[in-house]
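seq as requested:
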Amino acid sequence: MPPDQQSLAAGSGTTGHPTGKLAIGPQLLGLLVFLAASALVAGIGGLATANNVNGWYATADKAPWSPPNWVFGPVWTVLYLAMAFAAWLVWRRRTEDSRAERSRAALTAYAVQLALNLLWTPVFFGLYPAMGTPALWIAFAIIVALAVAVAVTVLYFGPISRTAGLLLLPYVAWIVFASSLNLWAALNN
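struct tokens:
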């Protein structure tokens, strides 16, 4: 094996190809990890929503443009799948020397937005019964931070993988839309 291929193969987790591409096993495992992270966030959000969507939220004053409750589940499912796949596309590029540092920053931004996503649902749905309107304002601050974090993630993902950046655009649009619903709820409940 030529020296440049030996250095790529030694300790890098790659197949030894000069392109630095990962073998199928690690690629599949990486995708499963990103899917599992999205499923975890979705599951925790679902738990926080389940007890309250038919509770206080059923009688809350909602924005006139608010879709029926059944729309949220399918939309979030598609968004979480797209998020996981986008992050996986960026993660796959981390072995390329020219993209290693950018991939690390991009995946850090992704982790931040995922944490904010995880935080919003329990605050919006779970804290309202205990705190009332202030919980909705806290949730609004979180969702605005989430919108910014997702936009930053798109800006980081795009140069690494155009597809990854594009996959997150519907997520940005949905978060902005959800922010408007949150703002209405905070102003009117």
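The two ends are 68 Å apart (CA to CA).
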